Amino acid sequence: MSLSVSLHITPKGEDEIKSRVYKLDMKKRSLLILLTKPQTIEYLIHKTVLRPEEFLTEINTLVQDGFVATGGNAALSLNVSGLSRSAPASAGGAQIHIDDEVIISEAKFLLTDFSVDSFGTESQAFVDGIRACKTAQDLRLCLNTVFSAAEKLCPGQLPTLLNVIKEINATA
Prior knowledge:
Blueprint: E1 6-9, H1 11-19, H2 26-34, E2 39-40, H3 41-47, H4 52-64, E3 68-70, E4 90-91, E5 94-95, H5 104-119, H6 124-131, H7 136-153, H8 158-170
Antiparallel strand pairs: 1-2, 1-3, 4-5
Helix pairs in contact: 5-6, 5-7, 5-8
């Protein structure tokens, strides 16, 4: 399946967002919220903190249960090999990258600290995602989400985030 396939929320999904009628878990609700307007699979991959395997499972479940539908007549048949997301390529010319050999616990602490300082009371979703990280790849995926949020919500914090990334890489 192409990453450019569009997904949109159904009336059943709208009911869940507005009234929690179906009492979906946080992962499914977060994906529904991302779909308040139609989005491509590629967009969702870059915006969610879920690992590709989790993303695949949650989106397929939402489609099967009628909360989400594909744009047009495209059938949803995702596979993990087709899902890949990378950290943003650059920010102001600076390369965004987390080394494979970083100390995970230190990286999680630094990224959590940045998130709480930058996003305040809205940092909980980021902190939860960071806490779930077990590998450098997990951290890269979280960094992608944190970077995107910082870009939108607090662009003045991007230089600080770049410094945090340097500190994280220095632990390698």
